[in-house]
Amino acid sequence: MTRTYGHIWADWLYGGDKDRFMVSVYDACREIDGCASPAMKARLIADLRARVSGSSRAWVEGIHDFLDFESRRLSHGSALVEVPEDGEEYRVLAALDAAYRHGAFRGLCRTPGGAEWIGRLGEFCAAAVHQGFKWVRVDGGADEWELPVLGEAWCKGAALWGLVSLYVAVDRAAVDPDNDAVLARVHGVIGAHHMAGATWLAYRGAHPHKPWSAVRGRAPGGNAVAAFGREHGWPEEMTDVLVRGAEHVNTWVNPAVDPVHLERTRGLLIGGHVPRLEARVARLSAELADLAGGVSAGESAEIMWRASNWMSTYTGAWSGRGDDRDRVLELTAIGAVTGALRESRPHLTAEFVDRAERWARERTAHLPQRWQELLVPLVRTTAEVRGRVPGTFEGISSEGVGPKRFLDGVWTLSQWAILAPMGGGREFPGDLVDPTIRFFNALTQRRRIEGTDFPVGGDDHGGCWVCLGSSLFTGLVDNRPENKVQENLVWSALTYNNLGLGEVDDPSLGSS
User: Fold this and answer.
1) Which site among 132, 361, 389, 446 is 20 to 30 Å from 165 CA-CA?
2) Are 355 and 338 in contact (CB under 8 A)?
């Protein structure tokens, strides 16, 4: 298949399950959306409607929504979306609800099992992320009813709200293993919309790209969300999650920490708004602090913040239940404790590495021997590389060391901690390792050390994270690893930093 818009988008949504029919439908939607001729648009709508007629695929429900919307707009000359006069909060909610109901979202998160409300929530959150990132699109062609008309703060807030609410859903629903499949699907759909909105040049346009400013994002207030949910028949659970998510977006402030620790967002995705996940990370952080030994109060707090950020990138697989799969995934948080402590200490010790190895053996004892023999040495190597332990690898010092820091220090363990509990799966493609490192480095430029870390460059624009992210976005098409690995290594590069919603390393997302 030629890599058209529809081919790329179908791959990000469905991977190897895409087919020519799906690709042709998404290509047709793109053509309809961009058609300026009423007569031609009418023919395109009729052709696509005939093509999808009779299809029982879940995602086609959203295509019918899109076609009905475009038909009404063509007939009446406007979108015919109700814009309430009850203030901006309700206008924002109406815009997001209209985007969800008219924008080919319904059906994307439907799975055979799990609570039905989770899929509906996922589709709404994907619409919120999609609408929010329209603020930085190259064409700026938002309709009069869409979110960009209301300003940057509401756009940034909508994207934050959609992403934060995903973690609230995990906190509430992942306690039940029957919800694992639908939560994994929701991660994939929201992640696709997040990566596309933040990096895909089909949306962002050529370099230089429209930037976000330091304005704080806003979400509708909890009372407005609850009232809107009741009026529009949202499931009670969905409304509760969205209320909690909105309240967190509107109240979160980046905490003050010891200046020895570098700037980053802390407590945005996993914090007090997700008490079950926070409690699990607190237990994990206490274990990690014990491994390090002699931690100060400031170091202990930073280990908690870093472990929270770290585990937020695994929630497509990590449930916070503390079961066997979680215990394996939590091995990766050895990177969190070493990352926190190498900012306050010149290096960690060989004794710490030995304790980490014993800790890993206990956590993997239930796995088949071959997985234990793979994972335990990876934990040891990660502790040595990330901890800059003297005498373990040539060239490692307190300043860091090129690509080895990312491969042996983070991502090799991350990948296999995901795959081992599944009995294996497709690894991350080797030809995209270097581009992924460059993308991550570009997102964290202020933390990279010239001459020792992997160079930020690699595109024609001096290491622009949008350009590098778009190359990854398209490079993964027909070349993807297991879904949870892709989400962890690529999409989570955004979530681990500032969600692509500000300048590089911008902590102002939590400013007042």
Assistant:
1) 446
2) no
